[in-house]
């Protein structure tokens, strides 16, 4: 008989893969056969926000292609260093909405728990690239956040975010979810994660079995921006989650040079649906300092959504939204 769960003394394969993630710009350029002229800027920009990419994700990037849409998401560029007056370090006002360390409570009925500061990949456009995680040391100290949730019966959904909550080992993640599960006013636990996309082995049987057994409804919101990200192993990991009764949604960020075309977005929706994932949000870029070169105008964004509406069933068209500091919800951008 094949054991379903690896003995606990073994480091799971996904953790080994994570430890081996590429963090060195020289190595990245070498593996992808990219010109050395990119190196100085990559090193400089990686100092502001480190480079990090898994080999699994790297394998989907075309060698020698500076314009590869997946490469653009992870390669530190000189553009990150041009300060812009309309871009901020806390673009969505998260710091004003943290009643206790490690918890962001902005919207009615939902609270977002910063389960860990760590991610499996560093997306250059990330709105939390400047977030002061060291002030929110939450991965081992969820007590205050859990107490806050316990005391507020209006919270029906806890969103595990970060960082990426699936950076936690299974045992830590299960410990956290076991603290949430008995709180009777919690109906849903939502997991915001990029792992199924960037390191599909993270979705192991131990995890999918655990998620299957919950009283709370489990919703997983993955983050894919381009159809090239959806290779076979990614599809398998999404299938495993779906087979275990987990609702799967996708959020994307609209990014210049990555997915700012109707054909790309339409193909992404079509491909996601073959994996039982429904498109949820298409985010307008949060104005985070260092990401201005990814911006797409609202006019173009609206035109893209219109083009999607003209060619896809309504349920495959994501909602175009923007997050503004101080708003009571993500704001639809309608045209
Ligand atoms: C985005 C977000 C949510 C979830 O909003 P939905 O519109 O329900 O997806 C909750 N809390 C915070 C702080 C958020 O940024
Ligand atoms: S996985 Fe999410 S939180 Fe992590 S760097 Fe990418 S966008 Fe930011």
Instruction: Classify the secondary structure makeup into a structural class.
Output: alpha/beta
Q: Please, how many helices?
A: 12
**Percentage of residues in helical conformation:** 25-40%
**Mean pLDDT level:** 94
Full CATH superfamily name of the largest domain? Aldolase class I
Per DSSP E runs of 2 or more residues, the count of β-strands stands at 9
Please outline the helices and strands:
Layout: H1 13-19, H2 25-31, H3 39-48, H4 55-58, H5 71-74, E1 103-107, E2 110-114, H6 143-151, E3 157-161, H7 170-180, E4 188-193, H8 195-198, H9 205-212, E5 217-223, H10 232-243, E6 247-253, H11 262-274, E7 278-283, H12 298-311, E8 319-322, E9 331-332
Parallel strand pairs: 2-3, 3-4, 4-5, 5-6, 6-7, 7-8
Antiparallel strand pairs: 1-2, 8-9
The chain binds pyridoxal-5'-phosphate and iron/sulfur cluster (SF4).
How would you portray this structure in words?
There is one protein chain. The chain starts with 12 loop residues before the first helix and ends with a strand. Helix 11 (262-274) crosses helix 12 (298-311). A nine-stranded mixed β-sheet has the order 1-2-3-4-5-6-7-8-9. The mean pLDDT is 94. The protein has two domains: 13-81, no CATH class; 95-332, TIM Barrel (Alpha-Beta Barrel), CATH 3.20.20.70. It has helices at 13-19, 25-31, 39-48, 55-58, 71-74, 143-151, 170-180, 195-198, 205-212, 232-243, 262-274, 298-311, and strands spanning 103-107, 110-114, 157-161, 188-193, 217-223, 247-253, 278-283, 319-322, 331-332. Helix content is 31%, strand content 14%. The protein has 335 residues and is an alpha/beta fold. The structure holds pyridoxal-5'-phosphate and iron/sulfur cluster. The site of pyridoxal-5'-phosphate has 8 residues, from strand 1 and strand 2.
């Amino acid at each position: 008989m094949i054991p379903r769960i690896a003995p606990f003394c073994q480091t799971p394969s996904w953790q080994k893969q994570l430890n081996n993630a590429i963090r060195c710009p020289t190595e990245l350029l070498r593996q992808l056969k990219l010109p050395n002229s990119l190196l100085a800027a990559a090193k400089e920009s990686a100092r502001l926000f480190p480079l990090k990419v898994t080999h699994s994700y790297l394998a989907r990037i075309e060698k020698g292609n500076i314009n590869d849409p997946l490469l653009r998401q992870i390669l530190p560029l000189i553009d990150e260093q041009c300060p812009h007056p309309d871009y901020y370090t806390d673009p969505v006002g998260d710091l004003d909405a943290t009643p206790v360390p490690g918890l962001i409570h902005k919207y009615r009925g939902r609270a977002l728990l910063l389960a860990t500061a760590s991610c499996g990949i560093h997306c250059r456009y990330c709105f939390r690239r400047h977030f002061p995680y060291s002030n929110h040391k939450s991965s081992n100290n969820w007590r205050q956040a859990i107490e806050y949730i316990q005391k507020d019966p209006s919270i029906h959904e806890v969103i595990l975010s970060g960082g990426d909550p699936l950076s936690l080992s299974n045992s830590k993640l299960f410990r956290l979810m076991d603290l949430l599960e008995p709180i009777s006013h919690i109906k849903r636990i939502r997991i915001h994660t990029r792992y199924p996309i960037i390191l599909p082995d993270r979705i192991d049987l131990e995890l999918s079995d655990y998620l299957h057994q919950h009283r709370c409804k489990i919703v997983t919101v993955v983050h894919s921006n381009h159809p090239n990200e959806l290779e076979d192993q990614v599809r398998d990991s999404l299938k495993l989650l779906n087979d275990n009764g987990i609702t799967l949604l996708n959020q994307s960020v609209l990014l210049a040079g990555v997915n700012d075309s109707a054909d790309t977005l339409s193909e992404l929706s079509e491909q996601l649906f073959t994996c039982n994932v429904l498109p949820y949000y298409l985010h307008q870029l949060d104005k985070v300092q260092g990401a201005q070169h990814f911006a797409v105008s609202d006019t173009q964004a609206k035109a893209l959504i219109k083009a999607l509406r003209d060619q896809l069933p309504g349920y495959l068209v994501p909602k175009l939204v923007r997050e503004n500091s101080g708003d009571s919800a993500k704001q639809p951008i309608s045209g």
